[in-house]
Specification:
single chain; Alpha-Beta Plaits; 2 helices; two-stranded antiparallel ribbon; 15% helix; alpha+beta; two-stranded antiparallel sheet
Length: 65
């Protein structure tokens, strides 16, 4: 089960979460979202659900479960 849920269609590929993740658990997908961006994806095995992605994301992509 995923600790962090994402809404890929809200992602605008800004990269703030990618560079701020302390476990380097976030990367850009190869898929394209409805807005034409490559949204983020999370490696659940590396993610510790610290919430930094949630706090740094200006577009409300993340939900911490």
């Amino acid at each position: 089960m995923s600790k962090v849920k994402i809404n890929a269609n809200r992602c605008k590929e800004c990269g703030l979460c990618v560079v701020n993740c302390p476990k380097k658990a976030i990367k850009f997908s190869e898929e394209i979202n409805n807005s034409g961006y490559k949204p983020v994806e999370i490696n659940d095995e590396l993610c510790i659900a610290c919430g930094i992605c949630y706090v740094t994301c200006p577009d409300g992509v993340y939900e911490i479960a």
